[in-house]
Amino acid sequence: MASEAAAARPGWRQVLANLRQPKVLAMLLLGFSSGIPIYLVGNTLGFWMRENGIELSTIGFLSWVGLAYSLKFLWAPLVDKADAPLFGRWLGRRRGWMLLSQLAVAAALAGMALVQPQPGELAIAGIALDRLLAFGALALVVAFASATQDIVIDAWRIESADSDEQQGLLTSTSTLGYRGALLVTDSLILILAAHAGWSLSYELMALLMGVGVAATLLAHEPQAQRAPAAAVDADAPIGVSDAMVVRWLLAGAIGAAWLAAALAFGLRDDLALGWRDAPWLALAPALVWRLTRWPRGPVPEATWSRPLARPLLRMRDAVIEPFAAFFRDHGRWALLMLLTISLYRLPDFLMGPMANPFYADLGIGKETVGAVRGTFGLAATVLGVAAAGLSAVRFGFVPTLLAGAVLGPGSNLAFSYLALHGADPGVFTAAMAIDNFCNGYAGVALVGYMSSLTHVGYTATQYALLSSFYALLGKALKGLSGVAVEHLEAGRSLAEAYSLFFAGTALVGAPALLLCLLLAVYRPGAGRPASPPR
Which of 34, 111, 330, 454 is the S-S candidate for 334 at Cβ 3.0 to 4.6 Å? Predict the structure, then answer.
């Protein structure tokens, strides 16, 4: 068996030959386009707003536009099953959505450069608008369109791969382009803004979205999509009963009422929710899930409800079936996979907000941080991404995931050592290099593993669900990182508090490592699930 497995693995020459394929270059450019907007409505945007005298509370409120990246699974079914307006018939479903979202991001970034984050009013077509409100609305458009671009680029990457080996290469190539864009929007833009101003810098970022537009026009539409099972002949049996139609209608009414109530509650300033409200909040989704479950065994054909059954089948296939297919394909291991994904990058999320304050407290200058990040850090990231891509090709997704579960949290220990050692340029450079290599490796490992779990026919929706699980917990908890450092500082020096904090974030990765070991034993998702959509 071992010799057969070794023979099945591709040689290094075959791996390197795949790098010459046009789709690999397209993936590099699309990854770059995917990475451009995220910091422009995140950390970099906060820098610009603070320099313009905007209050911290306003900056914090505006940062919530980034939740679009964690909630993208809500509209992913639309991207999965419908063509994009204007461009869908011309370019196809995947590339049509790519181009539409890229143009929307570019237009909104240019609008942000024009409006600028300043107090006061703005007159548009004779209508006076609050300038900050208009700026925030444009930032929301960027985040929403950027999240949509991520959905469809991920789907294109997964569906364009001819094999698991090529999937690993496309994943690492995408990550490399993405990391390059983060370097531009996190480091280089600061240098540009210091010399040319923030508005011109954001206008240049809008122009850089043309890289993604060019890649979209040059790429080929993947052929892996499948029509939903509901699209059958009008007289053919559909396997749906009148009772099922009634349950689906009831589930739709309950879901709509729950969303309306949640929106109304969210608009109330005096709303106070507690743990006792949790069962009520979870009741409606549980009822909807129960009512939309497909019954076991044969059911009598619908009669009077047959005209309603087909539209409901199409809706169920777009919204419910991607999630049901995931649990059906992976069975009792599905929850373990989701838990592993949600914990995998948690140490990196928890450490992230404290990195820049840590450098400042150590006395490391901005120019030193920028220089090291753009040289040694960039080189280490490229090496980490390449190592993970080649590992995925040579050894598979699960072993690569396991190695990343060790390297990712382990890199936090380098900062723990740096906190005790002080602002030594050599130690700082080494810590930055270790962190960038390990996080580049772990990022590719997770993306590759999540890609292997998706179901052809529901690619965009399922990958959006998985990537939302990956980020949601970390984004919810990282806001407490500053409180943790302040608490650890009691009775200690600030350097000791930072050291303990970074060591603690490394220990947070232990549960994910144990879960990866369980997955390595079971080894699910070695390739894409083979069962067809229902």
Answer: 330
